[in-house]
Design brief:
- By secondary structure, this protein is mostly beta strands.
- The chain has one domain: YVTN repeat-like/Quinoprotein amine dehydrogenase (Methylamine Dehydrogenase, Chain H, 7 Propeller), CATH 2.130.10.10.
- The protein contains 1 helix and 32 strands.
- Strands 1-32-31-30 form a 4-stranded antiparallel beta sheet, with no helix packed on it.
- It starts with a helix and ends with a strand.
C-alpha cells in the first residue's frame, strides 16, 4: 500500500470511501502537495497539445480543483449577482454536472484586489463535501452530498475585518471525525472543529488579535499529530483532538497565507506582511525551536519539502532550493512573474503556475536548477495545479477581451 494511503487511514478512521485516485482536499491526499507515487503527467502542453478537455467555469474563484471519483469540484462566485456556489464537472468529459448555490447576497464589502469571494478549496471526507465562505460578516461551513444536496450549514464564527479588509482564504481541514475551520482578523479569530456528520461544534480555540489567511494542516511528527498554523509572528502546533496549544516558535510574520509544510521533525513556514522571512523549526517532545531563518518571502503560496530539501518560489518569481535541516541555499533562479499558486510534485518534477497563466515545470533536485518546460494557458492563474492518474487539472482565466472568463483544463498525454 502506498505511504500516503496510510496517512489517509490514520486521519480518517471513520471513512472508507476515499480512493487512491482522488485528490480530496487542499494540497492533496497527504496534505503536502505531493502526488501519488508513479504519477507521470505531461510536462508540455498548450491550447492545441495534450488538452484532454477544457470547459468554461461560471463565475470567478481562486480555489483549486479537487477530484472525487468521477467528479472535479470547484467553488466559485458570481460577483455581480453576489452568489457563492459549488460546481461539479464530469472527470472524463469536462461536462458540468451540477451547480449548488450556497449563499446569495452578503458579500464582504471589500477584499484584496488579488482575492476572490471563492478562494478556499473544498474538502471531501468520503461521504460529504465541505466548503467555507465568508458571507454576511461571518465564516460559514456547509456540508453537501456528492450530488450537491445541502446536508447542513453552520456559522463558524464572525468575520468583520476593518484594518485589513483583504477577504478570506483558509480551506477546511478533515481530521478523523472532525472538519476544522479557521478564521482570523484584527478584532477576533478562531479555529473550530465540527462533527463531520452532524455539524455539531466539538471545540474552539481563540486566535484573538492574530492576522492569518493560512489554511490549517495536520502533520504527524515523531508519532504525534499536530494541527499546524502560522500568523502573529509565530508557528504553532495544536492538539487536533481538543484544540489546545502544545508548542510555538518564533517565525514568519504577522500575516501569512501559505500552508505550513513539514518533514521528519522539521516544520517550515514563510511570509508575509509586513516582514519577509522563511524559517525552519524543529519539533521534539512537544517543544519547538527555530533552527534557521532567511529573508525570503512566500506570502500567498505554499512551499514543498521532499527528500531533505525545501523548494519555494517567492513572491517575485525566484525559485529556491534549501537544505531542509540547515537552510543552506543549494540554488536559486529567476523564473517569471509574481506567483500565488503553490508547488505540486509529481514524477520527479515540480509544477506551479504564475499569476500570468504560465505553468513552470522544473526538476525536484538539489544539484542545480533544471528547467523542464513552460506552458501558457490564458493570462491569469491563482489556483494550484493538481495531479491525479497522470493528468493535470488547471484553473486558468483570461481577461484579454475585457471580460473575465475562467476555464478548467484537463491535461494528459
Amino acid at each position: 500500500m502506498p505511504r500516503f494511503a496510510f496517512l489517509i487511514i490514520a486521519l480518517l478512521t471513520t471513512t472508507t470511501q476515499i480512493s487512491a485516485a482522488d485528490w480530496p482536499w487542499w494540497r492533496g491526499p497527504n496534505f503536502n502537495g505531493i502526488a501519488a507515487e508513479g504519477e507521470k503527467p505531461p510536462t508540455k502542453w498548450s491550447e492545441s497539445q495534450n488538452v484532454v478537455w477544457k470547459t468554461a467555469v461560471p463565475g470567478r474563484g481562486h480555489s483549486s480543483p479537487i477530484i472525487v471519483g468521477n467528479k472535479v469540484i470547484l467553488t466559485t462566485a458570481d460577483e455581480k449577482a453576489q452568489v457563492q456556489s459549488v460546481v461539479a464537472f464530469d472527470r472524463k468529459s469536462g461536462n458540468q454536472l451540477w451547480e449548488t448555490e450556497i449563499h446569495k447576497g452578503g458579500f464582504l464589502a471589500e477584499i484584496h484586489k488579488k482575492n476572490t469571494h471563492a478562494s478556499p478549496t473544498a474538502a471531501w471526507d468520503g461521504e460529504r463535501l465541505f466548503v467555507v465562505f465568508a458571507n454576511s460578516d461571518a465564516v460559514s461551513l456547509t456540508a453537501l452530498d456528492i450530488d450537491g444536496n445541502q446536508l447542513w450549514q453552520k456559522r463558524a464564527g464572525g468575520f468583520t475585518p476593518k484594518k485589513y479588509s483583504f477577504g478570506y482564504g483558509p480551506s477546511p481541514l478533515i481530521y478523523k471525525d472532525k472538519v476544522i475551520v479557521a478564521g482570523e482578523y484584527e478584532a477576533g479569530g478562531f479555529i473550530k472543529a465540527f462533527d463531520r456528520a452532524s455539524g455539531k461544534e466539538i471545540w474552539e480555540t481563540s486566535r484573538q488579535g492574530l492576522i492569518s489567511f493560512s489554511s490549517p494542516v495536520v502533520a504527524n511528527i515523531n508519532g504525534d499529530d499536530y494541527l499546524l498554523m502560522t500568523g502573529g509572528n509565530y508557528l504553532a502546533g495544536y492538539n487536533p483532538e481538543n484544540g489546545k496549544g502544545v508548542w510555538r516558535a518564533e517565525g514568519c510574520s504577522m500575516a501569512t497565507c501559505g500552508t505550513l509544510v513539514w518533514e521528519d521533525d522539521m516544520v517550515f513556514g514563510s511570509g508575509g506582511y509586513p516582514d519577509k522571512q522563511t524559517v525552519g523549526v524543529q519539533v521534539r517532545n512537544g517543544k519547538a525551536r527555530q533552527v534557521w531563518t532567511n529573508k525570503e518571502k512566500c506570502y500567498e503560496q505554499s512551499m514543498l519539502v521532499h527528500d531533505g530539501y525545501l523548494y519555494a518560489v517567492t513572491d517575485n518569481g525566484i525559485a529556491f532550493c534549501w537544505e531542509a535541516k540547515t537552510g543552506k541555499e543549494m540554488w536559486k533562479t529567476r523564473l517569471g512573474s509574481p506567483v500565488s499558486s503553490s508547488l505540486t510534485l509529481a514524477g520527479g518534477n515540480l509544477y506551479y503556475s504564475d499569476e500570468r497563466g504560465t505553468t513552470y515545470v522544473f526538476k525536484a533536485t538539489s544539484e542545480k536548477f533544471t528547467p523542464v518546460a513552460e506552458n501558457k494557458l490564458g493570462n491569469i492563474s491563482f489556483a494550484t495545479p493538481i495531479i491525479v492518474d497522470n493528468q493535470i487539472f488547471l484553473r486558468h482565466a483570461d481577461d484579454s477581451s475585457g471580460e473575465w472568463r475562467e476555464t478548467l483544463y484537463c491535461i494528459g498525454n
